[in-house]
Amino acid sequence: MTGAPETDIDEADLVVGQPTDHVAGPKAVAIALKRAATQMGPARATRALTALNQVDGFDCQGCAWPDPEHRHKAEFCENGAKAVAEEATGRLIGAEFFAAHPLESLRTRTDHWLGQQGRVAEPMVLRPGESHYTPITWDDAFALIGEELRGLASPDEAIFYTSGKTSNEAAFCYQLFARAFGTNNLPDCSNMCHESTSVALGETIGIGKGSVSLEDVHTAELIVVAGQNPGTNHPRMLSALEQAKRNGARIVSINPLREAGLVRFKNPQHPRGVVGRGTVLADLHVPVRVNGDLALFRGIAARLLEWDALDRAFIDTHTHGFDEYAELLRAVDWAELERGSGLSVEQITEVAEFFRDSKATVLCWAMGLTQHRNSVAVIAEVVNLALLQGNIGKPGAGLCPVRGHSNVQGDRTMGIWERPPAAFLDALAAEFGIEPPREHGYSTVEAIAALRDDRARVFIGMGGNFVAAAPDTVATEAAMARADLTVHVSTKLNRSHVVTGRTALILPALGRSERDLTGGREQRVTVEDSMSAVHASRGPLTPASPHLRSEVDIVCSIAEATLGDDSSLPWSQFRADYSRIRQSIGRVVPGAAAYAEKVDVPGGFVMPHPPRDTRTFPTALGKAVFTASPVEILDVPEGRLLLQTLRSHDQFNTTIYGLDDRYRGVKGGRRVIFVHPDDVTALGFADGDLVDLTSEWLDGSERSAPSFRIVSYQQPRGCAAAYYPETNPLVPLESVALGSQTPTSKSVIIRLTAAADQTPLVQRWP
Ligand code: SF4
């Protein structure tokens, strides 16, 4: 037990300085080690960090960047160490803490404060009308859930949500339980992040996953990083980019913000990163306007066609729709592309020259492309660019969507999907003798609407912080409060535990860093990273509390308590031996044959990817498909700004590690909005002013978020940026990407008004 939890922070302490032009270095190492030692104590921290991302160790709970073949002794980044420290903290909260903190007071606290209180030590229940959580036994908790679920008028009144930290074994059991119960209501965090990627890739290349390996990144001639900030969100990616640079690659960063992570990397694994200036990464930064990417990519493609810098053989052999697309390229309106991208024709041409001069290009992207109304079309345009030059299914080239959560791709592979393919359900039926439901279930935003409209009564969340991650915070919280039962399988306290249904349960799970001795044997779990590499993970640490249970055990127990003993499903065998789950995975999950055997191989294996492996495209046409989307430009009215929501450096999704964003020069606070200096003046404000944000939507509706401090910050005119979840209240539930239903959190039209309350804010929930 180390260090008392921090109290709430007064934003009056907020200090804003200059952004940095480099990342990592000795400072990152110092911060990582200090966080680890403070939270875990030196011995536990050493055990954890020396096992992190090692072949026989455990997988980082942070992002989904793959592990290199040759791992360093310290194979983690600053934010990976923070993720472990958050989970493996020695701080523990139980009956005493909850007796001292009524729900009402917990609701006034920030997610940062809630998270800093420590691990939840035992199962807790909030009964109808009560003001405090109280302890409950595991068996009573499972029985309560079983009774509520069986009491529903329809299985579709239940929602089974998954956050991307859930292991493959737990995810497979969870989807089996939900389908045996009778519903496909399996929304997940991917709905809110890379769903636009999965939809666009599914339609264009036939599989919703990236097509590159780490080796491709290392050997690429050109690497394009669009709408992504790896310095904070995927830091070990910088090591791969550095290696590529040393191999002669060129790197282009496409982002409204010039993020320090793509300017210069001081790799602490190398002397040049410790005492030297490190490695300059991006050869070109392209300050595209928020949501201006499609216009930019379209311009690049038009130049490539003009210069005939194409792989005609690939196009002729492997693609469909080139002629129609080429017609569109010949007819581009350059003035429209300039207006849409916020870039000049010269700037667009300069980027196109990088593509022209590369024989092997890797295209990387993240949320900056996926959370807009036209995101599916934007990502289809990225695919168009790759197809024009045959940059798929060859060394040093391909599509690289980088996932933000460690196992979000694995969960989807295991069947966590509200729109499961028929073939998967057929295999499930054959393996378990059940009749899985065929009707598609609720996505994340549909699940919230179902709770709001009383079409859903029970919400079960595997990990995550649903109400903080979801858009339209006020509406989402009101919807959650209408539920009869909310259940969260979690490690630590967060906002979703204090915005509850009539009855609420917190079921404290083992963390990935902890030893899992379920069934009286040491159990391993498996995960899949952004590059489809599957490997085992085994936690070395003594669990924080003797009352914790594994995710697999919890899911199997809920299933038994709900479906009853007459269920022929092997919950007890699964619980006793996870390899039994892996055997079923091998027979049900496409591409996972011999799964149990393959994960026993040190380092694991890579799931098949026909476009990458054999240039085979499992689309309806059996070809890769060019997409001829219109260039839609989001026009912003005079006196308004186009806001993108983003993470600070001291944050992982909705987990707030701390209140600094040192690469952007922010210290001690989070309620800031980054605005171009000339826009600050043009809007009649000054740097440091406190403003309220109001979003304006086509249907005339508005949403507001109070008290943000203006920070003058270089970016394209008319654009702005601020952190989520503080800005999630600005995005209506209905504002989603076409085709993927991903919330449009990256393009929000706002107006600024002088804050109604000018007193500096004490950090509070939004
Ligand atoms: S890059 Fe991602 S997976 Fe790797 S240590 Fe950092 S947070 Fe963890």
Compile the SSE list and pairings.
Layout: E1 15-16, E2 23-24, H1 25-40, H2 42-51, H3 78-87, E3 92-93, H4 95-100, H5 103-106, H6 111-116, E4 119-120, E5 124-126, E6 134-135, H7 138-150, E7 158-162, H8 168-181, H9 195-204, H10 214-219, E8 222-226, H11 230-233, H12 237-246, E9 250-254, E10 264-266, H13 271-274, E11 279-280, E12 284-286, H14 293-306, H15 312-318, E13 319-320, H16 322-330, H17 334-341, H18 345-356, E14 361-365, H19 367-370, H20 375-388, E15 398-401, H21 408-413, H22 422-432, H23 444-452, E16 458-462, H24 466-469, H25 473-480, E17 485-490, E18 503-508, E19 525-528, E20 533-537, H26 551-563, H27 571-576, H28 578-588, H29 595-598, E21 605-606, H30 610-614, E22 624-625, E23 641-646, E24 651-652, E25 655-656, E26 666-667, E27 672-675, H31 677-682, E28 690-696, E29 702-712, E30 719-723, E31 748-754
Parallel strand pairs: 2-10, 3-4, 7-16, 8-9, 8-14, 9-12, 13-22, 14-15, 16-17, 17-18, 23-30, 27-29
Antiparallel strand pairs: 1-26, 5-6, 5-18, 10-11, 19-20, 20-21, 23-31, 24-25, 27-30, 28-29, 28-31
Helix pairs in contact: 1-2, 1-3, 7-26, 8-26, 9-20, 14-17, 14-18, 14-20, 23-25
Bound molecules: iron/sulfur cluster.
Residues 60, 62-63, 65, 76-77, 79-80, 83, 234-236 line the site of iron/sulfur cluster.
Structure description:
A hairpin with a 4-residue loop joins strand 19 (525-528) and strand 20 (533-537). The protein has 3 domains: 11-87, no CATH class; 92-189 and 407-514 and 547-605, Rossmann fold; 194-402 and 613-626 and 638-766, 3-Layer(aba) Sandwich (Dimethylsulfoxide Reductase, domain 2). The strands form 9 sheets. It has a 6-stranded mixed beta sheet with strand order 6-5-18-17-16-7, with helices on both faces. Helix 1 packs parallel to helix 3 (78-87). With 766 residues, the chain is of the alpha/beta class. Mean pLDDT is 96; it is low at 1-7 and 762-766. It contains 31 helices and 31 strands. The chain starts with 14 loop residues before the first strand and ends in a 12-residue tail after the last strand. The chain is globular, with a radius of gyration of 25 Å.
